[in-house]
Amino acid sequence: MPVPNTSSFGGQEPGRVTGRRTYLPSRLTVRAAAWVVAGVLRVLTSVILANATANASPNVSLDDPRYEELSAMYSQGILDPYLGGLRPLTEARMDELIGGAGAPPGAWWFAPVDRALVRVLAARDLERTYGSSVRPRDLVGLIAASCEHAEGRPCGPGAGLYTELDSSVGYQDWLSLATRLRAAGGNNTYDEGVTLDRVYLSATLGPLGAEVGRDVIVLGPSARTSLGWGDHAPPLDHLRVSTAEPFELTSSVRASVTYVLGQLRDPQTFKDSLVSIGRGQVDIADHVEIGMMQLLQLGGDGAASLDLFDFITEHIRRGDASASGSDISNRRVGFDVAIRSEAFGGVRFYYQLVFEDWRDRFHHALRHDADHLVGVELAALGRDALVVELQKTGVRSQEHTPRTTGFTNAGRVVGSPLGPDAWSLYLGRRVAMRNLTISPWIELVRFSSDTYTFVVDGPISRATRGTSELRFRGGGRLRRPFAYNLSLEIDAWVELVERLDFEPGVRRENVGAALSWVWRPDFTFQTRATTSRSVRRPLARVTRDRGTGGRADRAD
What we know:
The chain has an 18-stranded antiparallel β-barrel. A two-stranded antiparallel ribbon has the order 1-9. Strands 3-4 form a two-stranded antiparallel ribbon. A hairpin with a 2-residue loop joins strand 17 and strand 18. The chain has helices at 27-48, 66-75, 91-98, 308-313, 362-368, and strands spanning 86-87, 108-124, 128-129, 142-143, 158-171, 175-186, 193-205, 208-215, 218-219, 236-243, 247-248, 253-263, 274-284, 288-298, 329-341, 347-355, 370-381, 384-392, 408-409, 412-413, 422-432, 437-448, 451-454, 460-464, 468-481, 486-498, 507-519, 525-526, 541-545, 550-554. The chain is globular and about 65 Å long. By secondary structure, the protein is mainly beta.
C-alpha cells in the first residue's frame, strides 16, 4: 500500500491507479535484450581485440583489506586511477593491480570458500525513523549507528550471531557464478534465519564487463560515504553493463561507463519499482577523476504508466514534475571530482554533489536541495592512513512524493545513511603495526527539523525553524591476522544523543560491539583446460597474506 504523505512539503497524498500497471518491459524481456546486446558486443570485441584479456571472476568483498592496499598504492603514485567510480572489483582485477594475474583457469573451476565470516555482536542502539511526529518525512528507514555502511546486514538493538559463506564456480575465463549465504540467529532483527544474501553471474571480455543477479554496488570516488549509491544499501537485484577497467582514449585520458537496471526490494510505495542508474567518468593524466551520474526511480505496480519510448525519454527529460499521483519518476543527478596531489604527499581530495531535483533557481537547489560531500584521504601516511569527510544533505534528501518510501532498497536509503537535512564531520585513522591494525574514528552529526516551502519553478524558502538533534560518536576496529589467511576483527562504538527525536532534554546513550573471525582462503578446484582462450600480460607475480592485505614480491 502507498505510505500516507505526512510531509510538510505540500504534495498530494499518493493513491494507486486502480486497474493500471506500468507498461515497462518485463524483467525477463529486459534481461534477455540486454544479454543479446552484450553478446553482439562480445563478438565485435573479440574480432577487434583478438589478444585482449578475458577474465571472469567473483567480486572482492568490500571489507577486504586489499582495498586499503590499493588506496595506498594509488596515493604513492604506483597506480593510475583504477576504479572508474565503481566497486566492488573482481578478484582478477584485484590480482592484476596488486601484482599480476595467475595461471589461466581450468575448463571448470570451483571455489567452495572464497570468504567465510563468523560474527557475534550486541548493541544497545535506540532506533529512530527518519520521519517523526515532530518532523514527518516521505522516507522509510532508520537512523542507527549499527546499521550504517553495513550492506543490509542485520543490525539495531539486540544481540545475535551470523555467519556468511562466499562461494563461486566458473568455466574457464568466460563465466563466473558467485553466491553468499548468510545464517543469522538472535533476538529482534538478528533472528533472520538462512538467507541468500547475494547471487550473481558475471562475465568479462576485453573492455566490457556484465553482471546479472543480486549484488552490492558502490558508485563514486569517496573513501567512505557515497551520496549516490553506497554501501549502506542492501544488495540490489540488477543487470549491469560496464567497462571492465578504465578504457584508454588517449595517452593521458581514460574513460569508464556503467549502466545498471535494477528492481528495488520492498517496502516500496509502488511494488516492483525499477531503478535505472547511469554513470560516466573521465580520468585525466594520473591524478584527476571527473564523474557524473543519474539515478532514476520509476515504474512499479500502480504507478503512472509508460511505454518503452517513455522509459527512454524519461532519462532525458521529466514527463511530469507535479509531485502528485501522476508523477512518473524520482530523479537524482550527481557530479564528482577527485584530485591526487603529489605536492601534499599523495593526498587525495574529493568532492561529490547530488541534486534531489533540478529547478530554474539553481542557487536555491544548490543550497537547500542537494547533498554535498567534501573528503580528504591520505592513504599512505607511512604505513598509516587518514580520512576526513564533511557532508551536508539536502532538506529532502532521498524523499519523494508520491513515492513516499523514498529512494530506498529493502528499507534502507541508497545514498548517505544520515538521510535528509543533516550534516556530519568524520575523522578516521588507520594505524598499522607489526601484526596489528587499529582504526579509531570519531564523528559529530546534526539533524535538523526545520521545514521548507517549495514552489514549482520557484524558490525554496525556510518556513519554520525547529529543534536540532546532536549525536557524538566514536569507536574503532582492531584487526589481527593469523596463519592460514585467518584474521580476527573487533569493532566497538559508543554514541551520545542530545535532544533525541527533536525533543529538548531527551538524552540517550547507545553502544555496540562485535567480534568477527574472517577466513579468506586462496584455493580453487580445477579441471584441466584443453585450450587457453586468453593472452595474459607478463606482470610480476605476488604471494599475498589476504588477512593483512600485505604482499611479498617474487620473480617469475
